[in-house]
Every structure is written in structure tokens, then in C-alpha cells.
Design brief:
This protein is mostly helical. It has helices at about 5-15, 20-35, 45-75. Helix 2 runs antiparallel to helix 3 (about 45-75).
Length: about 80
């Protein structure tokens, strides 16, 4: 595997890592839900919900990146 190809690494990790797949699914759902909130007036409660969703989405993205980084290093050392 060419570990410099990020798309290939993502496909590989997605195929073998349950945690990555679960986090990715949640990340995509948060992204879709946030897109539905765009372009309309939000109540203060909705604004707070939006901020929390954005934070959660970022946390998920950071974890996905860490998993990919770990696999890339693991592959390099083999």
C-alpha cells in the first residue's frame, strides 16, 4: 500500500477499524445536520445546539485523524 495516498489509507482503515467507521458515520451525520441549519434564523437554544454539534464534529474529526496517523506510522515501521 502506498501510505502517502491518503484516500487509499482511509479506505484501508475504514475496512478494518470499527471505531473509525462508527466515528466517521457520526461525523457525516453531524455534518448533514449542520448543513440543514444553514441559512435560517436559529433560536438561542438552536444556536447552542449548533455550537455543541460543531464541537462534537471537530472532536470526531480529530479522532479520525489520530487513527489514520497511528495506522500510517504502524505501516511505516513494518
Amino acid at each position: 500500500m502506498d501510505i502517502d495516498d491518503n484516500a487509499e489509507l482511509i479506505d484501508y482503515v475504514r475496512s478494518i477499524n470499527d471505531e473509525y467507521r462508527k466515528i466517521e458515520k457520526i461525523h457525516h451525520k453531524l455534518d448533514n445536520d449542520l448543513k440543514k441549519m444553514e441559512g435560517r434564523y436559529l433560536t438561542p437554544d438552536e444556536e447552542m445546539l449548533k455550537k455543541n454539534m460543531q464541537k462534537d464534529k471537530l472532536i470526531k474529526k480529530d479522532r479520525m485523524t489520530q487513527i489514520l496517523r497511528d495506522y500510517r506510522e504502524k505501516i511505516k515501521t513494518q
